[in-house]
Fold this protein.
Amino acid sequence: MAGAVNAARGYWCEVVYGGAGWGRIVLGTLPTPFLGRALRWLRRQAVRIADGLDPDPDTAPSPHGALHKVNTEFQLGDAPAELRAWANDDRSRQAAYDQLRGGTPFALTATDHTGRYVLAAWPVDVPARLDALPAQSTNSHSGHLK
């Protein structure tokens, strides 16, 4: 069939923050043709955000005594703990892998008093070959795309 575009499955990954009155702030994105890479990236993002929000006083590079543990009994959720729990739970990550492999989007939402952090990935169709991409327009205002 002439002109048909061969497509393969890829994945779009995104990490988003949303807080009261802040709207939607994209903290990072990753397009990839590899499911394993998508989940490894999401795991690293979960750890990065958790460490940024709640550094471990015993291991964080800070002056001695600058950080200390606080009572979390009355907080509205614990986003860093939720993100770390998912990042360290092989079964949860396997479930995300199976979900994405089956064609269903995956999202993890962690919420606390600062806002909501969403780690998401979903399958996308991508051209399998560069020559399958639509031709560039020759009506470009700058002649370099001809």
Notes: The radius of gyration is 20 Å.
